[in-house]
Each structure stands twice: as structure tokens, then as C-alpha cells.
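tool=predict chain=A
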Amino acid sequence: MDLALDVFTRWLHIASAVALVGGIVYARLAATPAMNVIPADARNRLAEAFGARFRRLAISAVVALLVSGLYRFMLSPFRERPYHMIFGIKVLLALHVFAVAILLVTPASSPEKLARRPRMMTGVIISGLAIIALSAYLRLIPVVIK
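tool=predict ok
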């Protein structure tokens, strides 16, 4: 049973990260440039519609990442010295991604806030790629055997 639960939480963690960061990558690199060819009023309505459609997935992914990440961290064995420092940086970057993802799917109260979204998405992409790199490095740090 432990193996099945471990596999499931790992899958949930990775799938949620892919859905959240991948959705934002698509929105920034494909949808946003494509929307620049339509008038500003229609573009703003379309951006709000994208946010409304992505809201449930984004919030579900954030919750799943928090639950599965906490579960996996609590049951992980003790690792060598730099592990917790790098893990802390990863958590801070993840909190940045979560906060901006929630802001991106919240209805904008003004066109100026809508205009800031591409820059916010770029920041999430950078943080998301840094999290992936840190995760790959963390897997290489050996377990301390006592």
C-alpha cells in the first residue's frame, strides 16, 4: 500500500506541476501573442474568459501540489547537508508561482492589471523552470544512513 500511495503522490505532484506551469507557458507563449491581433476590447474579454476557464484547474493544481509536496516531504528520508537549503529555495519559488497563478485567474479590475499579466506569466515561467532544475538536483543528493 505504501508503494501505491508513494507512486500516486509523486504522479499527482508532477501532473499538477505540468498542468499549472504548462498552462501558463501556453498562455504566455502562444495565446497572448495570438490575441494581440484582435482589438483591445475583444482581447480583454478573451483574456478574462481564458482566466475563468483556467481558474478551477489552477486552484486544483495548487492544492494538489501543496498536499502532495507536504506528504512527500514529511515522509522523505534525511538527506545530506545542502538538501534543506535548496529545498527551501524551491518552496519559496513555488509560493511565487502559486501566488501569481491565483492572481492570473482572478478577474482583473482594470485594463492596466490585464496589461501586466504577460510580465507576470514570464516570471512564473522562469520560476517554474528554476523549480524543475532544483528538483532534478535534489534527487541527486544522497540519503544519510544512520
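The mean pLDDT is 92. The longest helix spans residues 40-75.
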